[in-house]
Specification:
The complex is a heterodimer of chains A (237) and B (339). Chain A is α+β, with helices and mostly antiparallel strands and 237 residues long. Helices cover 25% and strands 28% of the residues of chain A. Chain A is built from 5 helices and 13 strands. In chain A, the strands form 3 sheets. In chain A, strands 7-6-13-5-12-9-10 form a 7-stranded mixed β-sheet. A 4-stranded antiparallel β-sheet of chain A has the order 1-2-4-3, covered by helices on one side. In chain A, strand 3 and strand 4 form a beta hairpin. Chain A is elongated, with a radius of gyration of 20 Å. Chain B is elongated, with a radius of gyration of 21 Å. Chain B is built from 5 helices and 21 strands. Helices cover 19% and strands 25% of the residues of chain B. The C terminus of chain B is likely disordered. Chain B has 339 residues and is α+β, with helices and mostly antiparallel strands. Chain B has 2 domains: 183 residues, no CATH class; 111 residues, Cyclophilin-like (Cyclophilin, Beta Barrel). Classes of the chains: A alpha+beta (237), B alpha+beta (339). Chains A and B meet through strand 3 and strand 4 of A and strand 16 and helix 5 of B. Chain B: This is Antagonist of KipI. Chain B: Keywords: ATP-binding, Hydrolase, Nucleotide-binding. Chain B: GO terms for molecular function: ATP binding; hydrolase activity. Chain B: It comes from Brevibacillus fulvus. Chain A: It comes from Brevibacillus fulvus.
Chain lengths: 237, 339
């Protein structure tokens, strides 16, 4: 791969910038480097974090120091990454995992659904249809354990955040915030418009991997009834 | 039985050196705020440096020992006492069964670390014993310690090979505890009264106005009360960009100093999120993070510019010192074994 920049993230990390905009091409570059590092971590590497346009690699400066070399640990890491980037070529992500997320829309599980519909002068059914139609791309995971930054929300239902954030949003709540949509994996405060809730657990520390979603996955939302939601929850218990 | 929490203190948690390898899933690293103090405390009781210890913040707990054991307290001086008698820091201490360890006011620093021989025995979750309060995992049932909690201790792999235990037990006589008459010299480490923290300018440093850039290094910032394990919110000279930046979320790390639109910087600490989207003006040098972790809300901090190369050299020197201390203690322990 070509056209990248390195930025130090403090003295134990380096950020590889692989593009400028949030798009599929940049995402594929990010995924290619992340996949390589997952399969072939180098000596001294601690972990890596893929994001919209970057892959950040954390390293141990002690393991990467060499008193005999004039190079600093940072310079050594950059040289290693340069070699890696010269080897890999981005491939189209044909193998994206598809994860279906059942959502019970509206009612007490989605208290802002009607407000979202009113805001756009749409019917509630239309909002649900527009939210369940696209294939969403998980660009990255961040903010909370297993929280997906999804690309692909229909602009017709993009809705500003609530004026007053809620202090407590339950895990599983599905929301819209600006032109983003997502699912809260753990209970947290937040300002997104809540349109529904999924019975699935997005953060499950006893599993390997510990989150339902990973960067690169494709997400589809499917509308379920309140009865189905309750049944799911019973099964989960 | 091991140690019982009689009073929990303000925010007492089980911590190790953090949960690495899961940031790609949005799972934070966490770990001790002052990793240096936890590592030293572990060395002093013969543990691996990453064994689980107790992080004690400002207002400490009262702890009852249900068995005799070797402990060490490092980091901030929160006036620890055993059965009413002061206990010195930075040395092994042999504690008799039935003794009460209590912490008082924060004389110096903000966080003390208690290590026990063998380490605290809490389940390993995702590779670590660290308490992740927000996700409710790790540590003692995923939460801060509460009254009545009983924390078990792991048995040391090789029983009784740590000479300090035996020597101190012999010395103890009828007292409730015996502290070693030697300690790790404070001169090897940053003084917790130092107010200058070294910072490497970050990617967006040049995007701030010239006045902001010079004010950042020239003025003092106060640690506000809204400061915790996630981050230190500072108040002082406001920092302004020359023009708005369009940033997408990307990784942030411990020590990242980010500047939200209102202009007051935030230093991200151990429980920071994995990613963020605010402009970054600098990164605290890793070598100074333990020092920063000991600042109390209300105190003033000053930043001093350091290059990446200097920061890494300082870290390597620090780690060489740590290695010497570790080896020294091992030799001491081994000599006791033969003698």
């Amino acid at each position: 791969m070509e056209n990248y920049d390195f930025f130090p993230l403090g003295d134990s990390g380096v950020m590889v910038k692989l593009g400028q905009a949030i798009d599929r091409l940049t995402h594929e570059k990010v995924r290619t480097l992340a996949d390589y590092l997952e399969e072939s971590p180098f000596y001294g590497m601690v972990e890596y974090v893929p994001a919209f346009t970057t892959v950040t690699v954390y390293y141990d400066p002690v393991l990467l120091s060499d008193p005999a070399s004039p190079q600093s640990p940072y310079e050594r890491v950059c040289a290693l990454l340069q070699k890696i980037l010269a080897q890999v070529t981005e491939r189209p992500s044909a193998d994206s995992r598809i994860v279906e997320i059942p959502v019970c829309y509206g009612g007490e599980l989605g208290p802002d659904l009607e407000a979202v519909a009113d805001y756009h002068q749409l019917s509630v059914e239309e909002v649900i249809r527009l939210h369940t139609a696209p294939d969403y791309l998980v660009h990255m995971i961040g903010f909370a354990p297993g929280f997906p930054y999804l690309g692909g929300l229909d602009e017709r239902i993009a809705t500003p955040r609530r004026g007053t954030p809620r202090l407590r949003i339950e895990a599983g709540s599905v929301g819209i915030g600006g032109s983003q949509t997502g699912v809260y994996p753990i209970e947290s405060p937040g300002g997104w418009q809540l349109i529904g809730k999924t019975p699935l657990r997005l953060f499950r520390p006893e599993h390997e991997p510990p989150t339902l979603l990973q960067a690169g996955d494709t997400v589809r939302f499917r509308a379920i009834t309140r009865e189905e939601f309750d049944r799911w929850q019973e099964v989960a218990r | 039985m091991s140690i019982e929490v009689i009073k929990p203190g303000m925010n007492t948690t089980i911590q190790d050196l953090g949960r690495n390898g899961f940031q790609k899933y949005g799972i934070i690293v966490g770990g001790a705020m002052d990793t240096l103090a936890l590592r030293l405390a572990n060395y002093l009781v013969g543990n691996d440096e990453g064994a689980a210890g107790m992080e004690i913040t400002l207002k400490g707990p009262r702890l009852l020992f249900h068995e005799e054991m070797l402990i060490a307290i490092c980091g901030g001086d929160l006036s620890p006492e055993i059965n009413g008698e002061p206990v010195a820091l930075n040395r092994p201490v042999w504690v008799r069964k039935g003794s009460m360890l209590q912490f008082g006011y924060a004389r110096k620093g903000c966080r003390a670390y208690l290590a026990v021989e063998g380490g605290f025995d809490v389940p390993i979750v995702l590779g670590s014993r660290d308490t992740n309060l927000r996700a409710g995992i790790g540590g003692y049932h995923g939460r801060a310690l509460a009254e009545g909690d009983i924390i078990q201790r792991q048995q040391r792999k090789q029983q009784g090979n740590y000479a300090a235990s035996r020597q101190l037990a012999e010395k103890m006589d009828y007292a409730s505890f015996a502290a070693a008459d030697w300690h790790i010299s404070q001169s090897l480490f940053p003084s917790y009264t130092q107010s200058c923290i070294r910072v490497i300018p970050a990617e967006h440093f040049a995007c701030f106005t010239a006045e902001s850039r010079s004010a950042f290094f020239a003025s003092e910032y106060q640690i506000t009360p809204h400061s915790d394990r996630m981050g230190y919110r500072l108040s002082g000279a406001k920092l302004e960009l020359t023009m708005p930046l369009e940033l997408t979320s990307e990784a942030v790390t411990v020590g990242t100093i980010q500047v939200p639109p209102e202009g007051n910087p935030i230093v991200l600490m151990a429980d920071r999120q994995t990613t963020g989207g605010y402009p970054k003006i600098g990164h605290v040098a890793t070598v100074d993070l333990p020092l920063l972790a000991q600042f109390k809300p209300g105190e003033m901090v000053r930043f001093q510019e350091i290059t990446l190369r200097e920061a890494q050299s300082a870290l390597l020197r620090r780690e060489a010192t740590m290695k010497r201390i570790k080896l020294g203690l091992q030799l001491f322990s081994g000599r006791g074994e033969r003698g």
